[in-house]
Design a protein that fits this description.
By secondary structure, the chain is of the alpha/beta class. It has 19 helices and 24 strands. The protein has four domains: about 180 residues, inorganic pyrophosphatase (n-terminal core); about 100 residues, CBS-domain, CATH 3.10.580; about 110 residues, HprK N-terminal domain-like (Udp-n-acetylmuramoylalanyl-d-glutamate--2,6- Diaminopimelate Ligase, Chain: A, domain 1, 3-Layer(aba) Sandwich), CATH 3.40.1390; about 110 residues, Diaminopimelate Epimerase, Chain A, domain 1 (Roll). It has a six-stranded parallel β-sheet with strand order 3-2-1-16-17-18. It has a six-stranded mixed β-sheet with strand order 7-9-10-11-12-8, sandwiched between helices. About 35% of the residues lie in helices and about 20% in strands. The protein starts with a strand and ends with a helix.
Length: about 550
């Protein structure tokens, strides 16, 4: 089960897109599904902001993109260790947590490097005389690992390279065995063999360990003290003591200081490339402050994302929130032409030739005998009014009208008065921060064979304002054509009262011969009775561009 499911409309969302996302999430909440979250792929336009503010509804969560990030697949409670942790304790961590790599950190949780179980075993088990005898450890760590009692000398926490010998032979044989080694580097393990003990001490070895908890005479203890030899007593037998001594080596001796790291906010694709091409078994994921967030391995790439999408008011990836192609889509609720992406699993797909996606959502309530809250009913009504231009658009169906009447009664609003308020308060170009934002606020891209084109729409009350900004609009359309790499761009300027659209086009000058509508001047066409981009403008352009 996904932790979060985002209900989200298209980029440059209009009122229907945002209203249907909020209302559908509310519908699912009423069914007991608390992980459904309304979202939007762009900031609300002035009309939508006006409606949300008037109804006292918070805007949905803004998602600039849903590209999977490293944080989505990394567990945020990694097993870590400090550099002075003995190898024995580290191996217990590997076993207890079933891990293959262990990040080594400093006191500030900053990664110092990695210890991998594979490379650790290779290093620990590699053959060679020094490898068999050599032990890198401190006397403090050795004493702790051996659970020893200090009989003489002072323990140091400095890591030293020691050579391990077991005194299980005659004194003469023992002396020959250690000959050639610096006594200050020798670690001797022996049982109750006074002759070996004395010989080792007199030779000036670094450390003498008497095993088995066997008694050590006062004479030996005093001799060790005089000679400056550290003398320990361990309860473990000689074989176990030798094994424990090797396991006292701190992790600092096994750290791989050259390691790959990645920020948790970086795209998952960056992690995939690092894992596939670096040759490293794991990558350390770090927080913004550089501290360890987790460990990522190749198996992390198979981790299901904690979130999924439900698309409303669109079904084409070109219109979806960036990154949607990398996220599981669980459902689509729409009223546009089909251009949906393939999915790996069967999904819920609700598409109907209605005037508004909000009509589909409102229908879900009615079909279940449920009534939305008053504010949600008003929001659904606003979505229908907006997308059907107060039920005047040719996309309006009898079902839209019936649902609008039902929502009117629940919301306590008159749809005509409500619609006039919506359009009169936020229509035209002046309702936006800039002319470009007005064009971009409801701009969608489409494909006609190998050609790509985009069409925006702005509702106005009269064409006076449009006449004053017409040349500026042509310049902006040209810039959008270049920046978005489109073959043609157009803007529908729709007068909601005269039910007429002026269509301003840039690119594909051949349109003039096939457009089929009066050309008022170069690049500008008058389309009487055309109000719907979805049902009238786009089908017509697809036909015209297809002919070209």
């Amino acid at each position: 089960m996904h932790e979060k499911i985002y209900v989200i409309g298209h980029r440059n969302p209009d009122t229907d897109s945002i209203a249907s996302a909020i209302a559908y999430a509310a519908f699912r909440h009423s069914l007991g599904e608390t992980n459904i979250i309304p979202a939007m792929a762009g900031r609300p336009n002035p009309q939508t902001s006006y409606i949300l503010e008037r109804l006292g509804i918070e805007p949905p969560l803004y998602l600039a993109d849903v590209h999977p990030k490293v944080r989505d697949v990394v567990k945020r409670s990694p097993v870590t260790a400090f550099a002075d942790l003995p190898l024995k304790a580290a191996l217990e961590l590997f076993h207890r947590h079933a891990i293959r790599v262990l990040p080594v950190i400093d006191q500030q949780q900053i990664p110092l490097g990695l210890v991998s179980l594979l490379k650790l075993s290779e290093k620990y088990l590699v053959a060679g005389a020094d490898r068999r005898r050599g032990i890198d450890s401190s006397l403090v760590a050795l004493s702790s690992s051996l659970e020893a009692t200090v009989l003489a000398g002072k323990l140091s926490d400095h890591v030293e390279h020691l050579h391990l010998f077991i005194g299980a032979m005659t004194e003469n044989s023992f002396s020959k065995r250690i000959d050639g080694y610096d006594p200050a580097s020798l670690l001797i393990l022996t049982g109750d063999r006074p002759s070996i003990q004395r010989s080792a001490i007199e030779s000036g070895v670094r450390l003498l360990v008497v095993t088995g908890g066997l008694e050590v005479t006062e004479e030996i203890i005093e001799l060790a003290s005089r000679q400056g030899v550290v003398l320990l007593s361990t309860p473990h037998d000689t074989s176990t003591a030798a094994w424990l001594a090797r396991l006292s080596t701190p992790l600092s001796c096994f750290i791989e200081h050259k390691f790959e790291r990645i920020g948790v906010s970086e795209p998952l694709e960056h992690l995939r490339l690092k894992l596939l091409h670096s040759g490293e078994p794991a990558v350390i994921a770090v927080e913004e402050d550089g501290t360890v967030a987790g460990i990522a391995t190749k198996s992390s790439l198979l981790t299901p994302l904690p979130y999924a999408l439900i698309l409303v008011d669109h079904n084409e990836l070109s219109q979806a929130v960036p990154g949607a192609e990398s996220v599981e889509i669980l459902a689509i609720i729409d009223h546009h032409k089909l251009g949906n992406p393939p999915t790996n699993q069967p999904i819920t797909f609700m598409a109907a030739p209605l005037g508004s996606t909000c009509s589909i959502v409102a229908g879900l309530y009615r079909e279940r005998g449920m009534e939305p809250e008053q504010s949600i009913a008003a929001l659904l009504l606003a979505g229908i009014i907006s997308d059907t231009v107060i039920l005047k658009s040719p996309t309006t169906t009898g079902r839209d009208r019936k649902l609008a009447a039902w929502l009117e009664s629940l919301a306590g609003l008159d749809h005509l008065a409500f619609g006039r308020d919506i359009f009169s308060s936020c229509s035209g170009f002046s309702a936006h921060d800039s002319i470009e934002k007005a064009v971009r606020s409801d701009f969608k891209q489409f494909n006609a064979g190998e050609m790509r084109f985009g069409v925006g729409q702005v509702e106005v009350v009269g064409f006076d304002e449009f006449s004053g900004v017409k040349e500026q609009l042509r310049t902006i359309l040209g810039q959008i054509k270049e920046s978005d790499k489109l073959d043609m761009v157009g803007l529908m300027v729709t007068d909601i009262y005269s039910e007429t659209t002026l269509f301003l086009a840039e690119g594909m000058n051949e349109l003039a011969h096939l457009m089929g509508y009066p050309q008022q001047e170069p690049h500008l066409y008058e389309l009487k009775g055309v109000m719907s981009r979805k049902k009238q403008m786009i089908p017509h352009l697809l036909k015209v561009l297809g002919a070209l």
